[in-house]
Batch of 4 targets.
Target 1
Amino acid sequence: MGIPLRAFAGRGRHAPLYTYTFWVERKVYMPALRMTRQPDSVRTRARTGLIASALALAGLPVAPASAVIIYGGNGVDATANDTAPAGYEDAWARTGANGEGTGVYLGNGFVLTAAHFTLGSSLDIDGTSYDRIGSVSILENPNGTEADLRLYRIAVPEGSGLHGRGILDIAPTSLATNIGNQQTEGVLIGTGVGQVELQPVPVPGGLGLNWAADDTRDKRWGVAEIGVPTSIPEINDSGRSVEEAFASQFDFFNGPDSAASLFDSGAPLFYLDNGVPTLAGLVHTVSQLGQSDFQDSSFFSDLAEYADQIVITEGDLDGDGGVGQGDLELVLSNFGTQVQAGNWLLGDGNGDGSVDVQDLDDVLTRWGNGYNQSIAAPVFAPVPEPASLVLLAGALLALGRRRRR
């Protein structure tokens, strides 16, 4: 159901899949994940836990189920952190539910999310549904294996909340740091289930907050940290992992006050870079199922290590990373027709539902953008239907006159 989680033997309604976990000094509970840069100050002792897949277990519903678990007086019926935090308005507007998880809109029709849950047919943001189009691409880890990260595209109609939003910034370098060093705080935005209590209660292992029912799913934000470099092993028997990752501890004592919950897989963590919301990572797993104990962690992909695979160029209709012949052919093959509004793969780059002179103009104006070298001049084939030839000739004439000015 969106997140592989931990549950202790004899507790909860879900069957175990794997044993894991160990105890970390400084009260950090973490899965037994390979620490890529484990600090010398960390001492561990074995402890048994269970990773449970909320999707693969028998008897669980697969339909989507209020969101990020936060500390500070927010129970199941309360409203808190359910509007965009100051400075993160654009990040909030890009984040929504996609099936059994959460996704973030990167721009030019592309959505990034985790790869271990079932996608829905749309990305749903603040009451608007954006239809999923085309195929899904799986990213790779630095070692060449499949990562628990995927890209897909959506149709973005003119006048919608996503229309006209530019390309989202992704962290250029890793911000993950070792325990004890300065850590960067950001904002986690999710669409998962909420919490039951208004305030922390005693739970097995200490103090924490219990998760509410599946029907409490909603969008909410909380403060989270970027730190504790690690890696995430295979998730949900998918064969996919996250080689470059970091953990964020749920810790009301020291500031960071949020944790991911069910259906928050793929939820983005942003930070402000010179006032601009910048994407640092996505949620993939959490410490345990059904509750968020203080000192538990949420685990994120470190997207700076995957950014070279996320190449997005304004005006790129066919999704190959640049504006060129493939994009021109999409426009020409549908020229003069009405199509699904905002369907890039049908040549409607401006989202008005019509493939026309404006779409052609956009492709030719941006010709060559996104490529590392110059490309050949446009070849106007295939030829449109005869009824569209006059329109096309007029467009080319107008473009030629404009470029000579």
Target 2
Amino acid sequence: MKKIISVLMFIILTIAVNAETVTLDAASGPGTGFDDQFIYEYDYNGASVTVEFVASSDNFRAHVTASGLKPSFTYQMKFEGHGSLSAYSDTNELLGLNGRWWDSGNQNDAYYWANKDTSNIIGYLVFDYFTTDSDGNFEGEIKADASYHVLYCDDDLSGNGDLYQISDETAYDGKTLKCDETTAALCPSASVFGQIERPSFSELPEGTYENVILVLNEESFHVSCGTWTTAMTKEIDFEIDYTQTCGNGILETELGEECDDGNNANGDGCSEDCNVETNKDSIKTDEQFNGYVDYQDCGEDFSGTLYAHGLETSHRYQLKIEGKPTCLHGSDGNDWSNEQLGLQGRFWCKQDCPCTVSSTWGGCNIDSVMSYEDAREYYLDHKDDPGFCAVGYLLFDCGTSDSEGNLEKSLSIDAAYETCSSVIGSAELPEGDYEVSFLLGEDFSPWGTLGPQYLDFTIGTCGAGDIPEFSTIGAALVLAAVGVFVVLKRKK
């Protein structure tokens, strides 16, 4: 008989600017028996998961820092309600109508409407997922912009062809497995894909979400070695308000905002009503910030070095280049280089998208509703359609500033990332002339950006060009809002 593990679990929750630490017991709900853990039974007592989010915003976004989880292991993130007969039935209904229903098995909407007053039907929404590294750690973003049915370990969402044996992971040596090593299998992070449950879902409906159970759920990929066990939970409250502007992490100057750093706290450089606090020592001025990128304007591939000073201390930044399609820039655009970046990285759809376009974010990643491969095929099939417009971009590297706010980083393009914690695959730009924007951005919601600055380079035969300068745009950073700049230089 399998041993049922009774555990205590810890999760640190940072709500806006107020930190809260709670101790959890095993959660209640579907698939929570600890004897059903995937591959081997694990005591989550030593795990730590930090979730930082804004309690009132236009959608749920959070920064997750996790340690002590199962190594190289995929977890679902989901919201779970207390049921249709509970005191929080309104919240439960919002989750189920945008996700799935559970009542002694998965049910559909028709079952819910017919039985909601006599049976306590649970509404839940699987909205994101992540895979830990070989030490059981993860840091990155989650966002409620997709409704998933289940996860698969390949990009065609029909099977698990990319699963690999656990014997390839030294972290599992000596573990008492619940199945044979040839059966126990894991999935590389780049091969995890979510099957969409509700194609029209892109953000939570407006409303107050009370006592929502935020669930960290094990993913078992239909392998007969455990079943989708709930690992850690925490009840949280938050509000979705489409009219909420200040504090949503998006600079909206047309509404009078001077800055938006993703919270409504004073004393951090951006006030509770989104005005720049110019008398605060934390503000970075042009004199305090400086930097440049020394790069080759031609060669077999893009290369250079980033030197930046006066950044936020111990911050992780994304390094990416973005295309300039003619559908946005007219004669100033370059559809060829825009296309190459998207085919290597991702396409951000601006018009006539295959998914619901958020009015706040002004677009969506095509691969948020289909696999990377299908998203690229979709772009190629529709790029010439009247009204269709997509921006190609390539997040090719990341770097973390030191304790004094300095960042020095050698640049090369050999990989494509979704975030700094999630690799899409390898990348290699084909020969040609590129007209792009170079961007330095934060690697967590609300994805603040320093830049862009237009620059051009050639893969292959050398060409000449002017020295570009890095200027700021309206972004979710106090740094950008007060006029931070970087100068980019070309190698002589």
Target 3
Amino acid sequence: MTVSDVVYSIVSIISTFFMYAAILVFLQCFYDNGIRWSRKKGAAFLVCALVQSLVSLFFGEHDILSILFAAVYIFIAVCDCKGKRIRRALRFLISYIIVSWSVALACLFGFIYLLPGFDILSENSSQTEGLLIYLISGIFFAVVFFYLEKRLVRRDIFIRCGKRENLVIAAYCLITFVILEMAVISETEAGTARIALTAFAFVCFAAIVTFPAFFFYGRLSSYYRRANELHETYMQFQLEHFRQYKAAQEETARFRHDIKNNLQCMNELLSSGKDAEASQYLSELIDEVRQLSPEYVSGDEILDCIISSKASVMKREGIDFTLDGVIPGGLGWSAIDVCNVFANALDNAIESCMNMPADKRYISLSIKSSEQFRYIRIANCVAEAVDTEKLFNESGGYTSKKHTAGHGMGTYSIRRTVEKYGGVVRAECTDDAFTLELIVNKSSSF
């Protein structure tokens, strides 16, 4: 074993490790949050890459060995998944094929046409060429892995890829396959055809490099656009709550200013023996005091903001809304997470009620607490039953709207947020009623 063999093996191990690690975090961030990256999986990938390199070094590279090791990598990726392992294994396999095509395309055009003298299609291709291929691909996968791991995985951010993104990737794979075939066929070309192929190769190589960058940028832009909308919604709730609070303070100040005169009037009525008039005056005074109190009190300040804002919409649309129970000490969640869960839930409930006759529209929010858990239940009328399993599935995107673009992530976002705090989401639906239940541990807070 020479020094060059050792260097080749080390670079191939690192490149293989980062390729499978990048595939895993890519799936976790954009397709299936049930596939999770962990240090244990990273260590297993590294050991598997080491064994694969040693086997290849002593026994040579064979297709059957590559297939067997690919199966091992896939098993490591999905071994700790809760259910649907076959589907997730197929996703990992498809991603591996896509990545293999991409790297092969980059190598073919990059080394055959852009760097004359390299001939990786030849059976006599040197170890130096293979080392350079592993080195470049390893750097590419390392950049992808560290970027996604730092920006998304550590923050537990999941950005679902929709149908449009899937179509783009499918088209990319098809074009890649066609170009690969063209590269093999055109290897014998020379002269003017060679120059044209070199120019074409440069364009293809640039597309291979820039496609992931544009893809990640597009998905991150979509995520942060949604996050900004959520922040804006939260700020609107806060502003509305502040306006209501200011109005209540002004009413309270006016009441305090007038209370002395009111009490004096009552005293005069009682002194004059006008008990009925005094009783009527007292009833009116109590009603005025009652109006100074908030109409809805949940125990959580941010939730109160959301309920107050949505209550005005429900009142305008003729929806009967009831709130039963309070949350002692509040939820203990971040303001954005409270907004994410309850604004989405109430919006969905209001939208469902709008499909019902005015006399049958209702939404109820009940809150109960035990020593360890909080039980929150939101119920509303529905025109027809919905599939609750699809509503909260891991890939998200299910919606009953006719126009699906930009919709379908609210319910999945509710589940993700509640699970973030160690809670459980359950949903039941009959032909005329939908019930959303949140069970959260009291000690769960961030």
Target 4
Amino acid sequence: MAYLRAVFPPIALALILIFLLNPMVNRLERRGVRRGFGTALIYLVFIGVVAIGLSVLVPPLVDQVNDLVDRGPEIQEDAITAVEDLAVRLNIDLEAIGLGGLSGQPEGQTQDSDSLSFIEDWGGQLFAGAGRFATGAFHVVLNFILAPVFAAYLLIDLPKIQKAGLHYMPPRFRDELLPVIERIGNTVGAFFRGQLLVAAIVGLMSCLAFLIIGLPFWLPIGLLAGFFNIIPLVGPFVGGAAAVVVGGIEGGLPLAIKAALAMLVVQQIDNHFISPKVMGWAVRLHPVAVMIALLLGASLGGIWGMLLAVPMMGVAKILFVHFYETRVLGNWEYVGVVTGDSGVVKEVGEKSEIPEADLASDAKGRLPAKLAKAEKAAKAERLVEDLKEAKGS
């Protein structure tokens, strides 16, 4: 499992990049640009946009993070004081819940006798934490280096991979499986493209809202809210909680309430105006199903599992609905209905990249053979009914 978790993040990130960039590579290819050159061009543009964004965001972000680090001890003392005051108001015994030594040294412990042990323990924890941080940072950097490389190779060879997959697909299953694959591509591609755009808009609105109310460290908190908004139902709680905590420590209860209201306004705008327009019905999952998917993803794959949980639940829904419609209800017309933009197999308004000669379809080139047979049978039944009516008249 440990080896799988080490390999899984760069592959997952590479697939996300493919769903994001492949539609643009396809458009360049239709205009006569070779796929390899088009991929390199899209990469240059993508890197340029990221570099411009970082050049704008990094300087103020570094200033605010440095300020946060410098004021760390002061913020810690203010937080401890706020917790103790709240405990006194609510008549809570901090000793009973294990927080008796929150503001200082525990009772009965002398500084002279245990100071050396305390320093040794603190030093060991510091070095252990630094080691874990360095290892995690190395893995993150490695993932962000390997993922674009994987994605570039796959983007260039994607048509060949599709044709190879079609070649090895049993002919009797092609008519049924190709629309299912296209629906899966539609769902996953729409989810990631829409969710990233929504996260960027939410991050920008959060930063502006926190700046307007005068919240300290508004930029890192707003970016945090936008980043975690990639994971459905999680971002609002993470960003809102951080804003309320910082507001309560720095400005007391009034600023905490303002921060909560600001995040509430941002989320209402997102839920009622932005997400419905951008996301549409990409996944079409009930909120309860989304929460179950997030719990399963978190338990199996951590943050990466949560990121992929919702689109994978959408894929599972597509497979289940397809099985129910075709095998249980016998509705083979469902197979021929393909809509949306997969970003991999087909794009809106364009023909499939898979050659038509390889598809065992009817004369229209769209409906599978089973659907064509169903249409012929329906026409025959209508013809018999017309003949009966003609004889009766």
